[in-house]
Design a protein that fits this description.
Elements lengths: L1 E6 L2 H4 L3 H6 L3 E5 L2 H10 L4 E5 L4 H14 L4 E5 L4 H8 L6 E3 L5 H15 L1
Parallel strand pairs: 1-2, 1-3, 3-4, 4-5
């Protein structure tokens, strides 16, 4: 399964990449939303994870832009919002989940399990 991580913090993702790859994921990274959108257009990932520190409105627009390219792409985001706030702000987008800003291996494992459940 192909996962695209769009992040301005690649150093935060480096420790968890082996976990994702160990579960069969092929991981691509982009350093900006523009680069991420280009990669989405070239080859649709199974999951696009946005970690760009976007405000809720910007995040919502970014997810909509991804879905306009391919509505079958699952999305997740790193966000400081609580689960309830995230649900309220992103309602209707069908996002897989949010990850805390200081996510752990366990958070990424949970995301992978959720994604695998959809592919199941």
């Amino acid at each position: 399964m192909d996962i695209l991580i769009v992040t301005s913090r690649p150093e935060h993702w480096a420790p968890v990449l082996p976990v994702m790859e160990g579960r069969g994921a092929s991981v691509r990274q982009a350093g900006s939303l523009e680069q991420g959108m280009e990669l989405v257009r070239q080859q649709a990932p199974a999951l696009a994870v946005l970690d760009l520190g976007l405000e809720p409105e910007e995040l919502r627009k970014a997810v909509i832009d991804i879905l306009m390219v391919n509505a079958m792409i699952h999305t997740a985001a790193v966000s400081p919002m609580t689960a309830a706030e995230f649900h309220d702000k992103m309602e209707g987008l069908g996002m897989l989940m949010s990850l805390p800003v200081d996510f752990s291996v366990q958070d990424v494992e949970k995301m992978m399990t959720a994604l695998e459940g959809l592919a199941g």
